[in-house]
Design brief:
Chain B: It is a multi-pass membrane protein. The complex is a heterotrimer. Chain A is α/β, with parallel strands linked by helices. Chain A is built from 20 helices and 22 strands. In chain A, strands 6-9-10-3-11-12 form a 6-stranded mixed sheet, with helices on both faces. Chain A starts with a strand and ends with a helix. Chain B is mainly α. The chains are: A alpha/beta, B mainly alpha, C mainly alpha.
Chain lengths: 496, 332, 336
């Protein structure tokens, strides 16, 4: 018999402020059920209710007609519910097997049965076709993509009947995304109910059987995927029509001088990179995870500086050996890890927006009055006031604060690594327009994105990286297949 | 930039505590019916408050300074030995004590930032080294004596127009506090808090993280030296003069709502925490709580205050998190 | 596992895995350092016409290591769990008094005395743990507060040694097997038990998880509060054992026996010296014991060399910082 999980009328408030208002959700064994909604719509809270992390104020959770009440994550696990959280839930210093069985270590004669843990983990890894992962290796030794595999193994090892995945592809390279799809489909075949939370339209349409949309903590609709178009979805999520158009590209004739140029630049992670970005231009960098696209961005910004070749800013050869040096020479960097590297989350909107100015500029320039209100308005940050701590903002607004802190120093070059990661459709659009506005004001923008439609839609030219090198360059509006061909190492010849 | 007065988050509870204690003092002790009584309290509290300001810089930037107690002792013992009652030596010895505090802070900061040793360990090591070295040098017990000129800062008072007699230590405290508030409002101060919150974000914003943390330790060392000068004057020379002050200063800072681990808290609140602690001791004395039980009561109150602060903050957080969804355009 | 319908291919996994060869883990480093210290110390002492590792010298090292070792074992457990205990020094004094006063010189009261002392210790640990988990006070402040409460109690009720342990109980403090005191062997036995508990048992796994990342542990279904409270109870019981041992050696309870020895910071120093991460989640009892013996050997060498006692503190401070600096270097290199 296939499992059915019914969440009915789930409500949850924090100190009287409702976050979920009577949400219904029905999951069936053997289906992939997508859960969509803007940031703040209540998806994460709903997931946490399902995972036993939060107790709902009202409503019921039934599994095969039996009502359950979870006192904690352990109860939910026992009922067959496994969650893959958005942030990694792994202990870096412990081994893969120890992580997989964390909280449920098999015990034999009073002691943890390490052998069984390792063997079971190895079997699951093999089953996923990931036999390259050593169950006894510490997680800190694994690349990011393999950590995601460990997360999945951890979820599977609980005898899960329901698997909820919160943005599972956020950290994956494209070919790994394919593997994940494959895996999700296999799990579906075996009768597992999969709740799939994602911001990426394409994933949702590729994978899901049904879609439930939440907005402002309330249930909006639930329909078979086949009956919905992406425009419908956006309308349900945002409550209004949102054009899917990207901002207009730059006029090739109107481009300015070359602001950033690399000639034969390389370090331990990237080799022999030649590129030029002109004032007013957005150059996209595509590539699989580990291809060196982020390493390139970090090298330009001086996090891991180039050790060979030359870097020119506005035609002058220079050396950038630290982020501070980069900032002082007019280079800005939007990191892909907003919370870890981009913002001081407990500090106010104001302090974050002024962070670069205060930290990197010489005191006299740094202290000069800046029109903060105008700055925040130009990126359209929605916050209670400038003294609100940024951790209470939505991902999209946080990203706007990141952009604001760079706008405050008028950069000549902006390197943006995954500038729209983990933010909702509306905010994405706003960030796209901001980047284009910057370019129009004469900034040279180097943009990295693993979302191909976005990259193609935004870029005036596309550079594709493979194995630490530039594999080729494609014009604006190139096809996804052309990009992928280069990214996977099929060479320029076949696509050009 | 507008300078409208704004209470940093976490400041309110300690101010309430402080007011309650001060009112308690007024009720319990006749000495506290006049400003002089409070001035005396402030004078007594000044060294701890100055230590708390120094400790605040370190804690808010994500560190610990366990060496300040030993540094106070060292400062007093060194001063006594070098001055040896000679008034003429006062000026250069004061400079030397300040320089010594600065040096100790510099070493703490350099070992923390360059050798990447957790500051808890570095300053614990420094505590051991200072305790040992000072007594090694003086041969086991403090020798010499402070000059009257030196002791003036801790004991004496000065005639201030309108206010009358104000103790030197209170004036010094107010000057330091004012400077600290200005510093924390400025870019460097804000960046210091940001370092305690997310070091990497500051680094990738072009900030000099190591220099900022170093600065915090240097300021802490320097202020500990100032506290040593005041305490030496106030309490005289003893080997125990600084004992336990590091814990007291940390307690004061935490009582002021500053987050251990860094990234949140105001310097005014930390200072108010120190004053509250001193007011508490005074009140306990007035109420006739036996000296021995005093620390027990202190322990209970500290746990209670911190628990209240963290539970209270926890509730407020959840509240703010959910209220942010009512959008309102940011205004300057 | 429901997702597996047919038998899966079994990958052969070596039973004792992790054949990553010999590595300079902090534990290895600390024992190498101990060996070097013993050699250098022996040479220095020999130059002055003495012998470091004779019967008396060994006895001295082991005796010094016993009480600190017990406290440090407990401290290791709480530090691994991401916590800290600053109340152990006063607790050692308190439990020595409870034990000695309950025994009051009668052999028949030994068992009740020991049990009562351990019960008092457990209660103090429980309070520490509950203040940290339920009242959500920072461990540093919580245990400092508890330390102050204990101090107040001791200062209020005692001015000096009190109680008396029966003669038979003093065997615990003074009997030895060859040059090794029985109590030291018991301490090592307890260390071994804790090693097993930490590395082989489920609660041990959970302890590392809680110290490594509280939120990850919680989301994985580990009962984090229970784990932290248990760690504090174990830590306090270990400190209680140290108090009982010291009562047996002194013949009576002494309120400040723990604080005079600086057991609070000293035990943290030993733990960190032994390579355990102050932030928690990494390290272990084996390293701690190495750290304890380094500190004990240093003291003994200095005694033999008749070095000024204050010089010891200086050296200790330098050793502590240097050791941690070395560990930190290593971690940074490995991460990059």
């Amino acid at each position: 018999m296939r499992t059915t999980i019914t969440l009915a009328g789930i409500s949850k408030s924090f100190l009287g402020v409702p976050v979920l208002r009577g949400v219904d959700l029905e999951l069936r064994g053997g289906e992939v059920h997508a859960l969509m909604g803007e940031n703040g719509a209540g998806k994460s809270t709903l997931l946490k209710v399902l995972a036993g992390v939060h107790r709902p104020d009202a409503g019921s959770i039934e599994i095969d007609g039996v009502e359950h009440s979870f006192a904690g994550p352990a109860d939910a696990q026992r009922a067959g519910i496994a969650i893959i959280h958005q942030e990694f839930t792994l202990l870096p210093h412990r081994s893969v097997a120890e992580n997989v069985y964390l909280g449920r270590e098999p015990v034999r004669r009073l002691r943890v049965d390490r052998r069984r843990m390792v063997e079971e983990t190895a079997r699951l890894l093999d089953w996923l076709g990931e036999d390259g992962v050593d169950p006894t290796a510490p997680v800190s030794a694994l690349p990011v993509a393999q950590r995601q595999v460990v997360e999945i193994v951890k979820a599977l090892s609980t005898d899960a009947r329901v698997l909820a995945m919160d943005e599972p592809t956020a950290a994956l390279a494209d070919h790994e995304v394919e593997l994940l799809y494959d895996l999700v489909r296999r799990l579906r075949q075996r009768g597992i109910a999969i709740l799939y939370v994602s911001h990426r339209m394409r994933e949702v349409f590729d994978l899901s059987d049904r879609i439930t949309v939440l907005k402002d903590g309330a249930f909006v609709t639930c329909a078979p995927t086949a009956e919905l178009t992406s425009a419908d979805l956006v309308r349900h999520m945002v409550g209004r029509e949102l054009g899917t158009l990207y901002p207009e590209r730059a006029d090739p004739a109107g481009l300015g001088a070359v602001r950033l140029a690399l000639r034969g630049a390389g370090n331990a992670r990237v080799r022999e990179v030649d590129l030029e970005v002109r004032a007013g231009e957005i150059v996209g960098v595509a590539g699989l995870q580990g291809s060196g696209r982020s390493a390139l961005a970090r090298a330009v910004f001086g996090v891991e500086p180039f050790t060979s070749g030359t870097l020119e800013l506005d035609g002058v050869a220079t050396r950038i050996t630290s982020p501070r040096g980069a900032v002082r020479q007019g280079v800005a960097f939007v990191t892909e890890d907003r919370k870890g590297e981009g913002l001081a989350l407990r500090q106010s909107v104001r302090d974050n927006a002024l962070l670069v100015r205060r930290s990197a500029l010489p005191p006299r320039r740094g202290r000069a009055a800046v029109d903060l209100a105008a700055l925040l308005e130009s990126v359209n940050v929605v916050a209670r006031d400038e003294h609100q701590e940024v951790r209470f903002l939505s991902g999209g607004n946080q990203q706007k604060v990141v952009l604001a802190k760079w706008l405050a120093v008028d950069p000549a070059v902006l390197v943006a690594d995954e500038p729209t990661r983990g933010i909702d459709v509306g905010a994405k659009k706003a960030v796209h327009h901001l980047l284009r506005e910057l370019a129009d004001r004469g900034v040279a923008v180097l943009m990295i994105s693993s979302e191909l439609p976005e990259l193609i839609g935004m870029s005036d030219r596309i550079l594709v990286m493979h194995d630490g090198r530039l594999a080729g360059e494609l014009p604006a509006g190139a096809s996804e297949t052309a990009v992928m061909a280069l990214a996977t190492g099929h060479g320029v010849g076949e696509v050009a | 930039m507008s300078f409208r007065p704004r209470l940093a988050e976490g400041t309110a509870p300690v101010l309430v505590v402080l007011v309650v204690l001060l009112v308690g003092l007024a009720i319990a002790g006749p000495a506290y019916s006049s400003p002089e009584g409070y001035l005396a309290l402030l004078k007594r509290a000044a060294p701890l408050m100055i230590l708390a300001i120094g400790q605040y810089f370190v804690i808010v930037s994500g560190g610990f300074d366990l060496s300040v107690g030993a540094l106070v002792t060292a400062g007093v013992v060194i001063a006594a030995r070098l001055i040896d009652g000679e008034d003429s030596a006062t000026a250069w010895v004061i400079l030397l004590v300040l320089a010594f505090g600065l040096l100790v802070g510099l070493v703490n900061g350099l070992v923390t930032t360059v050798l990447l040793v957790p500051s808890f360990i570095v300053t614990l090591g420094m505590l051991l080294v200072l305790d040992g070295a000072v007594f090694l040098w003086t041969g086991g017990a403090p020798r010499g004596a402070l000059s009257p000129g030196f002791r003036e800062f801790g004991r004496g008072a000065v005639d201030v127009p309108l206010l009358g007699e104000v103790p030197w230590s209170v004036l010094i405290l107010l000057a330091i506090l004012a400077a600290a508030v200005l510093f924390m409002r400025g870019g460097t101060g804000r960046a210091l808090v940001a370092v305690g919150d997310n070091e990497q974000a500051v680094r990738l914003s072009g900030g000099r993280v190591n220099r900022l943390r170093l600065l915090a330790f240097v300021l802490s060392g320097l202020l500990a030296a100032v506290a040593a000068i005041l305490l030496g004057g106030f309490a005289g020379v003893s080997a125990q003069v600084g004992a336990g002050l590091e814990f007291r200063a940390i307690t004061a800072v935490v009582l002021g709502g500053v987050l251990l681990g860094g990234g949140r808290g105001s310097v005014v609140a930390a200072t108010a925490g120190a004053l509250s602690l001193e007011a508490l001791f005074t009140l306990l004395n007035l109420l006739g709580v036996a000296g021995a039980l005093e620390s027990a009561v202190q322990g209970v109150i500290i746990i209670g205050a911190v628990a209240y602060a963290s539970l209270g903050v926890g509730l407020r957080h959840r509240f703010t998190r959910t209220t942010t969804k009512q959008p309102a355009t940011a205004s300057g | 596992m429901t997702v597996q319908e047919k038998p899966l291919p079994v990958r052969t996994v070596p039973a004792r895995t992790r054949s990553r060869g010999f590595a300079f883990t902090p534990t290895v480093v600390v024992y190498l350092a101990l060996a070097v210290l013993l050699v250098v110390g022996s040479v220095l002492v020999a130059l002055r016409g003495g012998v470091l590792l004779d019967q008396a010298g060994l006895l001295n090292i082991f005796t010094r290591a016993t009480a600190l070792g017990l406290v440090a074992i407990g401290q290791t457990i709480v530090i691994l769990a991401g916590s800290l205990d600053l109340s152990v020094a006063y607790l050692v004094g308190l439990t020595s008094l409870v034990a000695a006063e309950t025994m009051a010189g009668q052999a028949g009261m030994i068992v009740p005395g020991v049990l009562l002392a351990l019960a008092v210790a457990a209660v103090v640990g429980l309070v520490n743990g509950l203040v940290i988990t339920v009242l959500r006070a920072n461990a540093f402040i919580a245990t400092l507060g508890v330390a102050l409460v204990l101090r107040g109690y001791l200062e209020h009720n005692y001015t000096g040694p009190a109680g008396e342990v029966p003669r038979t109980f003093q065997h615990l403090g003074y009997d030895r097997v060859g040059p090794v005191p029985v109590a030291a062997l018991l301490m090592l036995g307890i260390a071994a038990m804790c090693w097993w508990l930490l590395t082989r048992s489920r609660p041990g796994y959970h302890l590392y998880a809680v110290g490594g990342d509280l939120e990850v542990a919680r989301l994985s279904g580990v009962r984090t509060r229970r784990t932290i409270v248990t760690a504090h109870v174990l830590c306090s019981v270990a400190a209680g054992l140290a108090g009982i041992y010291l009562a047996s050696r002194l013949g009576s309870g002494a309120p400040y026996v723990g604080t005079d020895a600086g057991f609070d910071l000293e035990s943290i120093a030993a733990v960190v010296l032994g390579g355990t991460l102050l932030a928690g989640g990494r390290g272990g009892v084996v390293g701690t014991i190495g750290g304890v013996f380094i500190l004990a050997t240093l003291d003994t060498v200095f005694d033999d060399l008749a070095v000024d006692p204050f010089f010891k503190d200086v050296v200790r401070g330098v050793v502590l910082v240097t050791a941690v600096a070395l560990y930190a270097r290593r971690t940074v290199r490995r991460q990059s």
